[in-house]
Amino acid sequence: MTDPGDTHDFxxxxxxxxxxxxxxxxxxxxxxxxxxxxxxxxxxxxHDWMWNEDWxxxxxxxxxxxxxxTSTTFLQPVDxxxxxxxx
Length: 87
Known about the structure:
The structure is a single chain. By secondary structure, the protein is of the alpha/beta class. The chain is built from 2 helices and 3 strands. 30% of the residues lie in helices and 14% in strands. It has a domain at 16-74. The protein has a 3-stranded parallel beta sheet with strand order 1-2-3.
């Protein structure tokens, strides 16, 4: 698992990428670009706390659609529910 923390300044990942999708220092578009460049098996979005639930669901659905035709699965975590990934 790769957890880059508060940055989009990384160039490699393991099978699971905890991807910062929004922050004052980065954009959702850059996050998508990183996911496409690094090609992890799974992306778990992080750093989206400032989004309301409707916006979060909207962006998650769009990102899932973007990665649908790739080898990467975009996971949509739900607050308070465990997320299980079987490798």
